[in-house]
Amino acid sequence: MKIGDLPSLTVLGTGFFAPTYATIADVENARPREPELPKFPLVQGRNRRFTSLVTQMHMDACGQALEASGVAPASVRSIFASAGGELETAVAILDGIAASAQVSAARFVQSVHNTPSGIFSIATGNIEPSSTITAGEDSVAVALFEAALLIAETPSPVLVSFGDEAIPAIFRPRDTYGSLAAAFVLTAAPVSGKARLSLKLASKAATALPSDVAPSPIHAALALLRAIESAARGETSLVPLGALFQPAAPVRPAAPVRPAAPGFGHEIACEVSP
Questions:
Q1: In a domain, 174, yes or no
Q2: Of 71, 87, 112, 167, which sits most exposed with the smallest number of CB within 10 A?
Q3: Could you tell me where the DSSP H helices lie in the chain?
């Protein structure tokens, strides 16, 4: 399926959480606050134990998006995207090994990249299809492409959540950025007063965001939230998302190579309109 053949998507609801920013407007105007932890009321009881910051942010943003959309948490398909995943949990496990040569079983269970997907499923009783994507700085592009494909096949709502925590100093990151999460509930049918998204091939362009947010591999999700707010004022925006991957060369050069799907290896953008 070509990019141009994908359906336009309606944004039923959105969510956002960042420890140091209360709103997208605060991000845009570089107005940080004192750090706060997510409340993530979507998850209750024992399911909250040992959850990392990135999982908590996912759940907080998802709860906001689902509440705004009116879609039942137990009935929505979901996609979770993160470039770094459970970094905080990985550090805690390594610290435990270094200190006592033991690994916390509870932390180990939540150390996998699809932890947010699992926690969401358990907390809400959701048994619908769920996938987890990691594609570095192209995670937003790949996850929205996946969402559009799912909705093209079955036009029921899809929850798409992006989340990454700041890279711990022990990893000596080249770029530093703040923790953040953003979530979207998308569907096929147009709804009056709701923004529409259309994926398009595009050249890569810089997105103007504060210096502590711009290096984030999922910063395009924030630009998308900002464009959705602009759509409510009647404005149309084009948001660069990243690239779809070109499939790797086969291990055996003599083997036949499957042609790349149209659009793979190219930068894509999202047109956001009223």
A1: yes
A2: 112
A3: 24-28, 53-69, 87-100, 105-109, 115-124, 139-153, 219-231
Cβ atoms 59, 120 nearer than 8 A: yes
Query: Exposed e or buried b for every residue in 21-39, given b needs 16+ CB within 10 A?
Result: beebeebbeeebeeeeebe
CATH number of domain containing 147:
3.40.47.10
What gap in Å lies between CA 123 and CA 150, rounded to an integer?
Answer: 23
Q: Which residues sit opposite 220 in a β-bridge?
A: none
Q: How far apart are CA 145 and CA 133, in angstroms?
A: 11
Full-model pTM: 0.88
Name the pLDDT band for 260 (thresholds 50, 70, 90): very low
The model's pLDDT over 226-237, given as tens digits with 9 standing for 90+, comes to 999 999 999 999
Into how many domains does the chain fold? 1
Residue 139 structural domain: 3-192
In a domain, residue 21? The reply is yes
Residue 259 lies in a domain: no
- What's the one-letter identity of residue 89? T
Largest interatomic CA distance in the chain = 59
Tokens in use for 6?
Answer: 């994908």
Residues in the chain: 274
Q: Within a domain: residue 234?
A: no
**Residue 23 has which token pair?**
């709103």
Q: Residue holding tokens 């953008």?
A: 269
Asked whether residue 261 carries a pLDDT value surpassing 50, the answer given is no
